[in-house]
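DATA SHEET
Item: assembly model
Revision: 1
Owner: S.N.
Input lines:
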Amino acid sequence: MIARTLRQLAFVLALALVPALVSGAWQLAWKKEEPLAPGEVRLAMAREWGDKVQWVDARARAKYERTHLPGALLLNEDEWDTLVKPFIDEWDPDKTLVVYCDGGTCDASHAVAARIRKELSIRDVFVLKGGFAEWEGK
Amino acid sequence: MGGKVSAVLRLAVAGVFLVAGVLKIWDFTHGRSATPDFTIAIQQYRLLPWPDLAVALAVYLPWLEVTAALALFARRLALGAATALLGMSAMFVVAIGSAWWRGLVIDCGCFGKGRAPTDLRLHLLYGAALLIAVAALSLHEWRRARRG
């Protein structure tokens, strides 16, 4: 009986794998937008989270002071040691952190997000796909 | 379990999983993103050590929901399908319970996207009720298979 159950279970699991692999491959091959890397989120999704989002600006201070996303906290790699304490003081555990930098090929947001996860042990962190440029364009 | 009761239970369980799976697949195939938004919902539980696993599960689980729901109506696969659904139901209850226990403010993602946060206690109750229904159906299929 157990053997029969396991055989049927294995068959159902394998059967489901076929359309999953096909749709996954099709999505990656045909979708016009670049797929999200792990830990990334699109602007549309972040907007849906509304006031549950805490924006984190990973750009240089000069850019942050010129303009930034509403309510964004500055936390960049260059000034990490200085900025991290005020950041933690402002941090609300009920909010999801979304880190951004300039966008395009900018890696600063990924680096800051990784440090937040590792050094601050905060796991609810995402990186905004397209960065600040995505925000300005919408 | 009587024939009518088991038939109603089968329809109800299959219906829930079919709707849940189809909605997620629809989001995935008709959204602009090549990465399903269900991935976000899974990641918000903070249970998986690797982000890539969330993507893989987000692609696979909806198809497993649909396949197992339909397989409930195939006599030769009903026992395996019920077992798969039992496993998924148990997993959902554990995940939602874990999130509620840790005080996470998230959407359960039961029907796709990680939208605005929902009341996890309510979803825990729904999940427990579904788990009981699937367990009853699994037991029925087990006994039916034993009788031959």
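QC remark: The interface with chain A takes residues 25, 28-29, 32-35, 37, 39-40, 43-44, 46, 50-52, 54-55, 59-60, 63-64, 66-68, 71, 76-81, 83-84, 104-105, 113-117, 142, 145-146 of chain B (CB under 8 Å).
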